[in-house]
Amino acid sequence: MSVRAKKHLGQHFLRDENIAKKIADTLALKGYSKVLEIGPGMGVLTKYLLEKDVTTYVIEIDSESVEYLQANYLNLAPRIIEENFLKYDLNDVFNESQFAIIGNFPYNISTQIVFKTLEMRHQIPEFSGMFQKEVAQRICEKEGSKAYGILSVLTQAFYKAEYLFTVPPSVFNPPPKVDSGVLRLTRKENFNLPCDEKLFFRVVKTAFQQRRKTLRNSLKTFNLSDNLKANVIFGKRPEQLSVESFIELTQLIEKDEQ
User: How far is CA 28 from the centre of its chain?
Assistant: First the structure.
């Protein structure tokens, strides 16, 4: 029995065992004892995770894949969560404990997976996975590039982001129309920002929504004082600012609002 890939779930099953093992080996397995794999499909990556000294859980929305895993990975069966990752409360399983995330992510929800990880950053010290290549590169991109944006800044504020390697379409069934890229996120030791974190998110998102404009114009909704807008940082465009500069910008706005 094998599982039929379903287009509406964005399924592309990895067939290459070497790449599956390589992805499993990207995890450092430090500071936690549990790993959650998203979208395991037929378990090509799962089998290598099960060899490691860590408790592996999987979350899968496709009932056909769940049946396959239950039949072929008997020791995993109690830790198969048949749910939608984006909607499921993970603390029903992890109960506030630390865990890593890994997976060959469906491209249609991959950025949403990253945003949910950021929301749960206090519990997720490590994250490895396969994305569409351009998305993986965007997450790891530095300032000064057109690809640098909201996802880059928000992820790198809390995690060290590394682009690891590229995977060709030929190793999937069915093959996607694009290359894939594997990245690793390692949570920073001090991942609490020295500014209001909600305001930081709002500043970054608002700035990049009009990325061609200077911050003086794109951040008008914040009702900044003329004195603050005279600061040299407001004459820049968002892609010119490093993560540290966005933190500094948030601190300036915070003081201005007081």
Answer: 17
Render pLDDT for 37-89 as a digit per residue (tens, 0 to 9): 999 988 999 999 999 999 999 999 989 899 999 999 999 999 999 999 999 99
b/e sequence 213-229, b meaning 16+ C-beta within 10 Å: ebbbebbeebebeeebb
Closest to 26 (Cα-Cα) out of 153, 126, 136: 126
11 has pLDDT over 70: no
40: preceding bond cis by omega (within 30 degrees): no
Could you tell me the pTM of the whole model? 0.94
CATH number of 7-187: 3.40.50.150
Question: Quick check: 196 and 253 in contact, CB under 8 A?
Answer: no
CATH fold for the domain made of 197-257:
Helicase, Ruva Protein; domain 3 (1.10.8)
Instruction: Name the β-bridge partners of 103.
Output: 38, 129
Helix, coil or strand: residue 153: helix
Query: Which sequence spans correspond to the domains of the chain?
Result: 7-187, 197-257
Integer Cα distance of 6 and 2 in angstroms = 12
Question: β-pairing, 180-187 with 172-173?
Answer: unpaired
Contact 59, 38 (CB under 8 A): yes
- How far is residue 128's CA from residue 99's CA, in Å, rounded to a whole number? 12
Alpha carbon distance 46, 56 (integer Å): 8
